[in-house]
Each structure stands twice: as structure tokens, then as C-alpha cells.
Design goal:
Structural class: alpha+beta
Strand order of the largest sheet: 2-1-5-4-3
Order of helices and strands: HHEEHEEEHHHEHHEEHEEHEE
Radius of gyration: 60 Å
Number of domains: 3
Distance between the termini: 50 Å
CATH class of the largest domain: Alpha Beta
Protein name: histidine kinase
CATH topology of the largest domain: Beta-Lactamase
Main location: membrane
EC number: 2.7.13.3
Largest sheet: 5 strands, antiparallel
Membrane topology: Multi-pass membrane protein
Number of helices: 10
Pfam family, one: HisKA
CATH architecture of the largest domain: 2-Layer Sandwich
Length: 489
């Protein structure tokens, strides 16, 4: 996955998604942390407002003559309400009042209420919570804070006992904290909107980039696959700067490759022509050498016969006839190499066929002190018996002349998956290393007095049957094989 551009871009998209999620989570966490801080600040401000009511109450009680319990209720309520208004007028969002046990609210004020009309009544929905906070403050005789968390807001109620001539009085304040409102919430929404918009644009650009590159690379790949392998196609520009640099480099490489191939074709034709001339030269030199020696011998004998008696003439004529037979045999062997005879394949029983090949060379083997042996691991084959006999005759003659005395030369036929294999094995050291690479070429021989045509005949016979001729470089001695493939059904 990481080895392709597409895979890397997908990984980049995933990392971008993870980074976006992390940044969003961080922003939300900071928002709630800010909300918690605002809640703590509101709680502290509510406590200070409650303390302000306590101070105002002590001031009012200090100015009242006699027992405050004798002050008319209407006058006391008016003074306490003015006290509440004065204590909370500089504290936005905080409402409060004075509560009496068993009686309820004695005074209430919300001087910073944002409505058109002043708010003069305690909120009925919050009466149970306000009463509970005041009762708890009287019970514990200290300032307490009650926090009520709701999905849309957090309600803070602070209450503290009022010590004085009137028993059972408490001061209370109440404020609300809205987490999903205000400047922090607007900043959060703006940040999240900007973040997600940026991510969407980045994802769109990366997706478009990935699809565009994949499409252009696929088009280039298809063009290269559909084109002839001997040359490179001319690719069209893609419009992508980096890809067009690759396209330009491929087009330049294709042009250079075509020019180099044209030069190489011309050079290869020159090399092939030179090799053909060299081959013709080697063959011509071999033929000239093979013909010159008998002609020189016949000329010498003819000159001796002209200056000699009748007995010398008869001997010279016999020698000349022998050389003529040698030249005739050489020509026949040359024709067998150069002329392509039509195959006359037939079913052949191998054991009698191998025995006939052995018997034809029995006298030559006996003269060289060599024993000929044949064996067959297959019953029959399908081939041209005359051509194969000529090929095996050349292999057997070479083996008889190369084998040391008192050893065996083995002619063997055995089946293999690649075809029917005729092998000729002798105990000799084999041809010299210097001639092994061209061993089956005409006039290449490693034996003194050899014409170098025998193995080339073997190769031509094998090629005519669609097979091969080879020298095995393993084991003791020398083994040549003639491989004839099985006929197609």
C-alpha cells in the first residue's frame, strides 16, 4: 500500500481525518473548559452579590430605631427591596432577594433584567430550589451554593443567613450560565466551521488529485502495454506538470531507442554479412584443402607413371583411382550436408536396426581393437531409417577411431520425455576444448586426417527430424546424442 502513490494519498487522507478529529475534540474540550471557568466565575460573582446583600442588611438594621420587628411590614419590605436593588444593580445576570422561614420571599430584585419591564416576582419555576437553598443555609448557619446542571444551562443558587433582630431571614442570589451561548460558543462554532470547511476542501483536492493521477497513469500504462514491444509509443501530454516531465522523458527515450535500433539493425546486417562471408571462407578453405591433397598425390603418381615402366603405370593408375574414390566420397558427404533430402519416416524396430548399424562397421572396429555393443530400451520409433543410419554411421566411425584399444563402443537407444535418444559412447578423451563450440560446423575437426563433415551431417539429420545433436560433458569417456522428438499425434 505504501509503495503506490494512491496508497500514500489514501493514508494522507486518513491522517488528515485523524488530525481533524483531534483538532475538533481539542476545540470542544477547550470550550467546555471555558464553560467550567465561566461557571466558577459566575459562582464567585453570585457569592459576592450575596455578601453585598448581607452588608446592606446590616446597614439598614443599624439605622432602624428600636425593635425592627415593630417596623410596619410594608415599610420593611420596601426598604429590603431597595436594598436588593442597590446591591445587585452593578451585577449583570444576577437576581436575588431576602427569604424568611415560614413566610417566604420578603423582598426580590432583578435590576439588570434585559426585558422591557422590570421583573418584580420571584420565578415560580425556581421557587423549590430557592427555598431549599435558604433552608439549608439556615440549618448549616453558613453561606451555601447549590448548582443545578441542565442540558441548556447551569443554575447557581447562593444563600446566606441574615443575623439580626428578625429571626429566620436569609439572603439569596441566583444566576444562570449558558454554555451554548455567548462569545465562547460563537468562537467554537466559527472554529469548527472553518476547520471542517478546510478539511472538506483538502479532501476534495486530494481526491481529485488521486483520481486525476490514477487516470493519467492508467492511460500511459495502457498505451505502453498495447504498443509493439520493438518500439515505444508517443504519449500525449496529460496537463500535469510532473507527469508531463515523465511523458517527455519517455518520448525522448523512445526516439533515441528507435534511432539506436535503426543503427543496430544496419550494424547487425553488416555483421551477419561478414559472418556469412567468413563461413563461406572457412568452407571454401576446407574444401580446397580436402581436394588439393588427392590432386597433388594423383599428379605425382601420373608424373612417375610417364617416366616409368608398365608396372609403375599400373600402380599409379590404381592409386589415382583410389584418390578419385576419395574425392567422390568427399563430394557425396558435402552434398549430404548442403542438400535437404525429403524425410521418409516409417515405423522402425530398434533392436534389428541397431544391430545392422553395428554389423556394417564390424570390420573397422576389429581393425582398431574395439568391441561394438548395442542395446535398446525402446521397442520401436518413427523416423527416416536411411538418414538416421547415416548419422549413426558417422558417430560410430568417430567413436571407433577415438576409442583406445581393448575397449567398447556402445550404441544405445532409450526413450525420454523429450523424445527418442540414440547415444554413442566411447572411452576416449573426446574432442579438444578449442573446437567444442563449433564442433557441429562443417570442416571443424579435432582429429588429424578428419574432414570435419561427419558431425555436421549428424546435426543436419537431427534438424530435419526436428531434433538436436549434442555432446554430453559429464561422466567418463565421450558420449554423443542424437535426439529425435516423438511424432505429434
Amino acid at each position: 500500500m505504501f509503495r503506490s502513490m494512491r496508497g500514500r494519498l489514501i493514508v494522507l487522507l486518513l491522517l488528515l481525518g485523524v488530525a481533524t478529529a483531534s483538532a475538533g475534540a481539542l476545540m470542544v474540550a477547550l470550550f467546555f473548559q471555558s464553560t467550567t471557568a465561566r461557571t466558577g466565575q459566575a459562582q464567585a460573582e453570585s457569592g459576592r452579590a450575596c455578601d453585598s446583600i448581607l452588608e446592606g442588611y446590616r446597614s439598614v438594621m443599624g439605622r432602624s430605631p428600636g425593635d425592627a420587628s415593630e417596623v410596619p411590614a410594608a415599610l420593611l419590605r420596601a426598604e429590603l427591596t431597595e436594598l436588593i436593588r442597590h446591591a445587585l444593580q452593578d451585577r449583570p445576570g444576577i437576581e436575588g432577594g431576602i427569604w424568611r422561614k415560614g413566610t417566604g420571599s420578603l423582598a426580590y430584585g432583578y435590576p439588570t433584567y434585559p426585558g422591557e419591564r422590570p421583573k418584580t416576582d420571584v420565578p415560580e419555576a425556581e421557587l423549590p430550589r430557592i427555598e431549599a437553598a435558604n433552608r439549608l443555609s439556615l440549618t448549616q448557619n453558613r453561606q451555601i451554593v447549590q448548582r443545578y446542571a441542565f442540558p441548556s444551562q447551569t443554575l447557581l443558587v447562593t444563600a446566606a443567613p441574615l443575623h439580626g433582630p428578625v429571626v429566620g431571614l436569609t439572603a439569596w442570589t441566583m444566576t444562570r450560565v449558558f454554555p451554548f451561548a455567548g462569545r465562547s460558543y460563537r468562537l467554537l462554532m466559527a472554529g469548527l466551521t472553518t476547520l471542517f470547511a478546510t478539511v472538506l476542501v483538502a479532501v476534495g483536492l486530494l481526491t481529485s488529485f488521486t483520481l486525476s493521477w490514477s487516470r493519467h497513469v492508467g492511460r500511459m500504462e495502457n498505451a505502453l502495454q498495447a504498443h509493439d514491444l520493438t518500439d515505444l509509443p508517443v504519449l500525449d501530454p496529460t496537463g500535469e506538470r510532473e507527469l508531463d516531465r515523465i511523458v517527455s522523458a519517455l518520448n525522448d527515450a523512445g526516439a533515441r531507442l528507435s534511432e539506436a535500433r535503426r543503427k543496430a539493425d544496419g550494424l547487425s546486417r553488416q555483421v551477419a554479412a561478414a559472418e556469412r562471408l567468413a563461413a563461406i571462407g572457412r568452407v571454401s578453405a576446407g574444401i580446397a584443402h580436402e581436394i588439393r591433397n588427392p590432386i597433388a598425390a594423383m599428379r605425382l603418381k601420373a608424373e612417375n607413371a610417364l617416366s616409368g615402366d608398365g608396372r609403375s603405370k599400373d600402380s599409379a593408375l590404381g592409386m589415382i583411382l583410389g584418390q578419385i574414390e576419395r574425392l567422390d566420397a568427399l563430394i557425396r558427404r558435402l552434398l549430404s550436408v548442403t542438400e535437404k533430402e525429403k524425410l521418409r519416416c516409417e515405423a522402425v524396430e530398434l533392436e534389428p536396426f541397431l544391430a545392422s548399424c553395428i554389423s556394417a562397421l564390424a570390420e573397422l572396429a576389429k581393425a582398431n581393437g574395439v568391441v561394438l555393443v548395442s542395446c535398446s530400451e525402446a521397442k520401436g520409433g518413427w523416423f527416416d531409417p536411411e538418414q538416421v543410419r547415416r548419422a549413426l554411421d558417422n558417430l560410430l566411425r568417430n567413436a571407433i577411431e577415438a576409442a583406445p584399444g581393448e575397449t567398447e563402443v556402445t550404441l544405445r537407444a532409450h526413450p525420454t520425455p523429450e523424445g527418442l535418444v540414440f547415444s554413442v559412447h566411447d572411452e576416449g578423451s573426446g574432442p579438444p576444448t578449442r573446437v567444442r563450440e563449433q564442433l557441429f560446423e562443417p570442416f571443424v575437426t579435432g582429429r588429424a586426417g578428419g574432414t570435419g563433415l561427419g558431425l555436421s551431417i549428424v546435426r543436419e539429420v537431427a534438424s530435419a527430424h526436428g531434433g538436436t545433436a549434442r555432446l554430453l560433458d559429464k561422466g567418463v569417456g565421450t558420449t554423443f546424442e542424437l535426439v529425435l522428438p516423438w511424432p505429434r499425434s
